[in-house]
Fold this sequence. Notes:
hydrolase; binds zinc ion; Polysacc_deacetylase_ArnD; globular; metal-binding
Amino acid sequence: MLRFHRTPPVLPWLFPKVWWRRPVQDKTIFLTFDDGPIPEVTPFVLQQLAQHQAKATFFCVGENLVRHPEIARQVLAQGHLLANHTHQHVKAWKTSPQAYLQQVHQCQAELEKVGRNLSDKKLFRPPHGQLTRQHVRILSPEYQIVMWSALTYDFDATLSPEKCLAKALEIIKPGAVVVLHDSLKAERNLRFVLPRLLHHFSGLGYAFKTL
Ligand SMILES: [Zn+2]
């Protein structure tokens, strides 16, 4: 399988309003966790982040916010950012722009029930990284779309935890927006990779911040 660990260079050019890597002057990394919150994995992530005074951004699925609002409140209480990943993890290539916007609004309504973010920015990441120009156009007035610069493939069960970690350490640079998942699919790799990734980059003097 061909894996694009780094963002293919043509994409930022196609979608200039979208965030990929962030401009930074110092050793900052932006960790992001997609698809939660869930009780099996998200509390583990919070505990690991706390050990390194690391902050992160959680792109939540609306349905998971409905099921586990107490975990989402814990994420906020620990100084992390909650962000939008649609209500039911829908694919842009299979959903009309109008129906897609409804999914995003519905997730945003659930986020607002949980509580207020420190930041007023409405950050949104499309499930599966799927976007079209039409979807970008309809979302952009209200939402800041966030993609990534480093994809760990933690969700890929055919990738060993050791390889997943080695690749992550190789592709993460200052200003990187890193995709990880607080999901059951990614759990095995995440439990191995996250503590080591935090330890490695903390040791090099990096700070982990919210977007
Ligand atoms: Zn997702």
